[in-house]
Every structure is written in structure tokens, then in C-alpha cells.
TrEMBL record:
<keyword id="KW-0758">Storage protein</keyword>
<dbReference type="InterPro" id="IPR014710">
    <property type="entry name" value="RmlC-like_jellyroll"/>
</dbReference>
<dbReference type="InterPro" id="IPR011051">
    <property type="entry name" value="RmlC_Cupin_sf"/>
</dbReference>
<comment type="similarity">
    <text>Belongs to the 11S seed storage protein (globulins) family.</text>
</comment>
<dbReference type="Pfam" id="PF00190">
    <property type="entry name" value="Cupin_1"/>
</dbReference>
<dbReference type="InterPro" id="IPR050253">
    <property type="entry name" value="Seed_Storage-Functional"/>
</dbReference>
<dbReference type="InterPro" id="IPR006044">
    <property type="entry name" value="11S_seedstore_pln"/>
</dbReference>
<keyword id="KW-1015">Disulfide bond</keyword>
<keyword id="KW-0708">Seed storage protein</keyword>
<protein>
    <submittedName>
        <fullName>Nutrient reservoir</fullName>
    </submittedName>
</protein>
<dbReference type="InterPro" id="IPR006045">
    <property type="entry name" value="Cupin_1"/>
</dbReference>
<feature type="domain" description="Cupin type-1">
    <location>
        <begin position="195"/>
        <end position="339"/>
    </location>
</feature>
<dbReference type="GO" id="GO:0045735">
    <property type="term" value="F:nutrient reservoir activity"/>
</dbReference>
<feature type="domain" description="Cupin type-1">
    <location>
        <begin position="3"/>
        <end position="157"/>
    </location>
</feature>
Amino acid sequence: MEIDLSPKLAKKVYGGDGGAYYAWCPNELPMLREGNIGAAKLALEKNGFAMPRYSDSAKVAYVLQGSGVAGIVLPEKEEKVVAIKKGDALALPFGVVTWWYNKQDPELVILFLGDTSTGHKSGSFTDLFLTGPNGIFTGFSTEFVGRAWDLDEATVKTLVGTQTGKGIVKLDPGFKMPEPKKEHYKGMALNCEEAPLDVDIKDGGKVVVLNTKNLPLVGEVGLGADLVRLNGNAMCSPGFSCDSALQVTYIVRGSGRVQVVGVDGKRVLETTIKAGNLFIVPRFFVVSKISDPEGMDWFSIITTPNPIFTHLAGRTSVWKALSPQVLQASFNVPADVEQKFSSKRKAEEIFFPPPN
């Protein structure tokens, strides 16, 4: 049965005055379930607080908008309080407890992409909250909680029963949350908009790759990621992941067109993509994008921490590595046609500026 690869927008799952949590549904985007991928967004208003929770899936978080504070507790480690802003990426391994807070305007928006292969639901994240009416301790008896925390019954009931908000609440403006520490940022986050560029093609585009070298925690997450910024009317070379990885792409800014080609040369996707869209490219399928005049940025995860790509156009493409005779025989064309083909794209790689 053919799988629908059409890009989709996230839908609201829960929220209130403090903000909202959105997710992509595997029923609407079947490749989420097929690839064991989860995708969600957290949007916090001013003074919005996403209460402590942990997840059944390892994730990469990417700040799409605004700035705020993240609290991160790795298993058996001390709390890290990290200042986050637009462009920051964080790797969140299994077992990590996190909280998120926005103390100012504008809205703080964070994207989460991750692997659900060991989760409760394939294609969806399941978060388990530490407090609130759906928190873990509401399920335990007061006897068990009291024994665990060494507290009397009245205090246990106050602690467990007072918070009525689920997942996200709005704090009073005067409430003082922990201040972030500069030393906590290193090793926990990397700003993809400020990091050294891995690719920089004049009038074409730029890439920053998130891997075990610049953010070692991605090794524990088991995912790689990148931020691509494509110039106006530029093209991203047709290419595929040659290590059996899936590409999960979220359009951060702008718009453009995408084509995906799969088995037997069949075009399985041809559509317009815009900010907020998420789509997934199956293993070994070839994808290419062309941006609209305003350009297009996207953030992707790849289901391996150090991905390898093969490009099918440009200086570093497989075509430039093949001998002329193989090209001529494969295309079944005269030598002059092969020579014209081989003479093109000798300087450009990965991104191609718009035609003159």
C-alpha cells in the first residue's frame, strides 16, 4: 500500500493561558508510524511554564522562536538551567527530566523531533508529568507517597492535590524562577544560527550540521540534525541518505517546492511546502527542493547521529566520480551529449544559485 508523504501541520493536543502543546498525528502522517518518528511543538506565552516531565523517547529540541529557560536533569545528575533562544538545538536522551519557561514576549516556540521505536505509541511521544492532576504521584496512595517523601498525610495531600493545571501553567509575573547559568549551556545546547558553517555556497545556501563532534549528547540520542538555509530561488541538489536513515524535515521559514522520487523512478511527492510543514523522506528515496524568492529554511533530523548523504548533481555528486564511458553507456547518448553533461556543475555543490 502506498504511503501518503504529503506535508502536514501540527494540531493542538492541550494547553491553556500559559501556552499549548501541539503534535503531528501518525494517522494523518503515516510515515511517523512507519519510521518510528515523533514530532511535536511547545508554545509558551509570557510567564508560561511547562512543568517537569520525562518522555518515552529520545529527542532533539530546536527553538523556533523567542527565548526562555530550560531546566534539564540527566539521570543521576544535577539540574542544568540553560538560557535558550531562537536557533538553539538541544539533545534530550532517554530518562531526562525537563521543564521550560518563558519569562517575556514574544511567544517561545520549541520543536521536538525524536525516535519512538521504544515508546508506548509508534509515531507519538508520550510525556509523563511529575506534578499536576495527571502527574505520576496522583496515582500513588498517600501512604506510598508519604513513605517515599517522609511526609505526613496532610502535607502529601497539599503537595499532590494543589496544582490543577495540566502540563502547562501561567505563573504570576512576580514569581522568580531559577536564573540560567552560562556554564550550563556548553555541552547541552548549540546555536545553529551562530555555529561555524559546514557548508556555505554563495547565493546558494548554508548548512550547520548537528553531530557528535559539536554536541556529543546527540550520540546518546541516536539522531543527527541540521539547519539548512536556502537562498531565494536556489535549488538543493537531488540526494539521498546512503546509510538507511530517514529524513524528517520541518520548514522553519519561507516556502518552496519539493519533489521526492522513489522505487522504479516514481515521483511519490510533488508539492509546495511552507513554514510549519513537516514531511518525511523514506529510506534511500531521493529528495530535492527549490525555494521561492524569499528563500526557505528547514530543520531536519536524520535517524543516525553521523549521517552520510549522496548527491546526484554538482561537483561532489556521484556523476562526477563515474568515468565518461560509464555515463555515455548508462544514458545511451552520443559522446558530445555526455561531454556537455560532464562540463556542467564543476564548481557548484549541494546548492545551486538561481539561473541568470
